[in-house]
Amino acid sequence: MNIECVLTTIKLLKTTMLKFLDDETITHCRPLVFAVLEGIDERFSHMMSNNKLKIAAISDPYFKLIWVEEDSVNVPISLLKGVVRKICSKCNKSGVTEEEGSIFGRGV
Do residues 63 and 4 make contact, with C-beta atoms less than 8 angstroms apart? Predict the structure, then answer.
């Protein structure tokens, strides 16, 4: 498992567990669902606020922004833009030309 999968997997698991809570046919497993949700929050909530993990997840072409809540989509985008600006400014300061510093050697 790659690091970019961490946040998306946590988000998917939590979303699935919340759907189980809404399902009225699941009555006997409700305490288990609550325990899993509490365990996720207890063990992984700090990861959901980790900027490096957010950048890794948003940078993966497969996951992009599917794990981000719609009302907070600008946060990981601005983090990624900040990292790209920082890298570009380092390239410009070191005298690397735009083509040399590009990812694909085509000015991209």
Answer: yes
Is 102 strand, coil or helix?
A: coil
Predicted model pTM = 0.63
Chain segment 32-70, per-residue pLDDT in tens: 999 999 999 999 989 888 888 888 888 877 778 877 777
Cβ partners under 8 Å of residue 7, min gap 6:
47, 48, 53, 54, 56, 57, 67
Structure tokens at 77: 């985008």
Residue (of 49, 14, 54) closest to 34 by Cα position: 14
Q: Is residue 47 within 8 Å of 93, Cβ to Cβ?
A: no
